[in-house]
């Protein structure tokens, strides 16, 4: 037999479905009680007080509630109840701040009258309207000390009732015992790990009257607790009512990690539930309860001693459920890392986010809008990053780090000059730590580009941040960029695409207007959020990105430029308005080896009909203008429809409110409204009025100060990356005698310790003893060296050899080198060992032995040094100059020579070693063929010859790579052509050193 409470609750749930008030705030009141009384959450329906308050949570369970208030003249519900006519006023609930978890909704009250409906006339339609089983969906709330006060003692890092103290504990703040937290018999304690369950039904609730049960969550993950207020001492309930939970006072509480709850006497509860990841709990209980549960073969009601457990289905006519907690805990930043679930939503854009298309016409008749996006990045020293030669893994990192640093030192300026030459706009997305570098900030401010944001640095992103931390991450990035560059960015690209399911929402809340993180289309689109706000997405193109083309696919400069050109030309042949965010990095696209071909390709694209170039901000503005125009037209349609308030028009207007974030409501007394776009008053018939209003969605408080977010740490190589206590000094101009580019061919003559491995032509061949790859390397010293000697002699071109001292002990190597006429430099003992792990004394001995051995084998003491495998220490430049070295080739971060000054007062002359034209980079890493390799060298040098300044190119080559017949032919031809380029000359490292010393 259904109870009176159940019958009334069921009746008004059905009534809610009939009236269609889901997502609104409805008041139903009688003529006898015409006043509107504000409902307070948790108010109890009492038959004797002639009032019923019922609350149904919205299906998603996220603090948007449909509250039905009914004031009845209830006279004997057992069949003789009199239902008077009801006046129904339906109005939307104003935006509620979701961070007010557990607070009372504040409905917008309005006095009005509308058509009346006999309640009984609605009843026959109820079964037809209600097509699903009755479900009571619990609220999800974050547990706090305040909202759990009636349920238990909340445990966190706060000391409650401090004052209980032990006299000799001088550094302890201790709280008094919880007054009523007592156990019936001796307490027992245990731990448990609770895993995810798909069933969200609340099938059982229990309570204990003679003990207190406690749960404390361990680790990093929150837990869900279904808790109901005690009913045993409720004076407003009869004996039967006090023996079961009150559904109106049962909620699903999320207890954050590291916190807990000691239940008070009579609190209804179920066992904790996982919020996605496993949650571990420390549980306090009694032997009686544990023994009773352990003795049951399957769940069943209990009424034994202090164990009182109910099967909910036996007492209630509905199913009680809690919403899926995973999106909730993700949104509120309660889990440290993404949960294994479709957090990015069904469309892949983010939790509770959906896609909306952009109105056509924004491109002004153009078919393809290309947005050049220049990534300006820095990396935390020691954390690694993109590599030109991934096999170089020594610490400290010099070669790959220097290659990346080259981008900000020279590549950025080269791209600025390229876009200026083309008269082409561009958008830079900038790490805020990069913008703190003086030469970077100066170049960006003078570029005329739009300046966007790209996080703090490219070694840390948002993926593992909580909501509060991610909000702080956005704020710190934008604040720092505004301070460094003078303007607050409106365009955002997350470093390394390390987004969370909240990133698009946080971006728009932070003032971002153009969001580049998604790559799934070639048309712009919006992402709409629950708050009503929208994020404009300009898809970032992965196919034309220089990382994809150069570092992954190993395209040479001309293949890379051709891929971009083909991509854009194809889009220009298709219908629609496409956008191409053309991502490029200063240390990839900004190198001379690629800028030459890239400039030519972009210049050709400027002439293609239907193709234009713009910044992200310009595209955003164009789309906004189109949307505003469309919205103005839609407003006129709304105003016209309001004059004929047909059901179809009302449906259309509701659809428009969902799409455009409008709120609509019944305002019968309103005769006019002001159009938010055209600023003109419109006469409206009674009925629908349009109000532009967006709900505000607040976020959880930041749990860490922004200063705690990942930032660059201490670097053993010093602030500038050259060594401890060392600083850079520029070389005086004029040393090149009017030449723009001085090419130093650097031939690496190497040996490897047998069995230690080394570079491979077929890396899969790993047998021991090593034959194929070792023989390929040995071929270099046996034949390749002689071939390179002959090539340079034929060309009449000087060269510098850097030689392992153990290689110079090979008779055929020493003979070839002595006869070559080259400068002979040093390259350590062998290429299987370097200096990286040596102490200072060991490194000094390493230098001495290398130089002594080479002097003995080759007849002269070298003055030029290259460390094997760039395995340097923070002392290497200083030890080199102390050892008599005059030209130091270990750094790769520039294309002009410079000094490194030491605390001792000495200076090391650095001639940067070029990684982009190195045969290892081109052939072994990028897999260029011989002609691609030669073309890369030629393009690199020709581009530098077009630029201002006195550049140097240390053209590294290895006897077993560049010295093979498959490459020497094309290499000879390319070098011969470069000898004819005005402003280009060839020299040894010693000759450049001598020229600079003369100028100094």
TrEMBL record:
Gene3D superfamilies in UniProt: Glycoside hydrolase/deacetylase (3.20.20.370), q2cbj1_9rhob like domain (2.60.120.620), Ureidoglycolate hydrolase (2.60.120.480)
Source organism of the structure: Symbiodinium microadriaticum (Dinoflagellate)
InterPro entries for this protein: Glyco_hydro/deAcase_b/a-brl, NODB_dom, RmlC_Cupin_sf, Ureidogly_lyase, Ureidoglycolate_lyase_dom_sf
Biological process according to GO: allantoin catabolic process; carbohydrate metabolic process; purine nucleobase metabolic process
Molecular function terms, GO-annotated: ureidoglycolate hydrolase activity; ureidoglycolate lyase activity
Protein name: Chitin deacetylase 1
Database matches in Pfam families: Polysacc_deac_1, Ureidogly_lyase
Keyword terms: Lyase, Purine metabolism
Superkingdom assignment: Eukaryota
Subunit organization: Homodimer.
Region (Disordered): 230-249
Catalytic activity field: (S)-ureidoglycolate = urea + glyoxylate
Domain NodB homology: 405-514, 778-887
